[in-house]
Amino acid sequence: MTGDSRYEIHQDAYIKLVLHSLKHRSSAVNGVLIGRSSADGAAVEIVDSVPLFHSQIGLLPPLEIALIMIEEYYGEKGLSVVGYFHANERYDDLELAGVAKNIGDHITRYFPEAALLLLDNKKLGDLPKGKDRSPVLQLYTKDASTWKLAGSKGSNQLTIKEPSANTVLLDYISSEKWNDIVDFDDHLDDISKDWLNTELFA
Predict the structure, then answer these.
(1) What is the pLDDT of residues 93-108, one digit of tens each?
(2) I want to staple 83 with a disulfide (CB 3.0 to 4.6 A). Which of 33, 94, 138, 191 is the partner?
(3) Packing angle between helix 11-23 and helix 165-174, nearest 10 degrees?
(4) How does DSSP classify residue 199?
(5) What is the pLDDT at residue 59?
């Protein structure tokens, strides 16, 4: 397995992850990335994301339930879980948490090129000040048994498919769109809530 794969995330998948973390700013949150490998295997396309939890994110039983439902739904569409997203509880914490590594390890058993994305709160906070088109996420890939931060600064290993995604994200932040996000915690508390967030960008 190499850490040289390129990753392209679609705008809706990207924005969903960031809004989920903004809805629960004082908690660690997580989610999974949905997608597929390119035909030549050199790139991973992240076409969707599913917000998972905002409380007790390391608990195994709810995670197993969520993964079964996610894999069943997206498997019928020819897609699979291709990575994991994590946002730390503290704004200034850029360490990769143990729970993130453990879930990432689980995903690599089924998808060796899995990406692990960590929210970079500083980049997110700086968004309104500039015209940065790069994602407010740090990319980690697994090299042998270790998760490593991909590339150096300026690395384009992780890109957003739509160049204007951060502008759209800022519009959603200003309108407090994060209030509409549903994660698996919400769904398990009230099964009428849609964990697919099909109406979010309607």
Answers:
(1) 888 989 999 999 999 9
(2) 33
(3) 30
(4) T
(5) 82
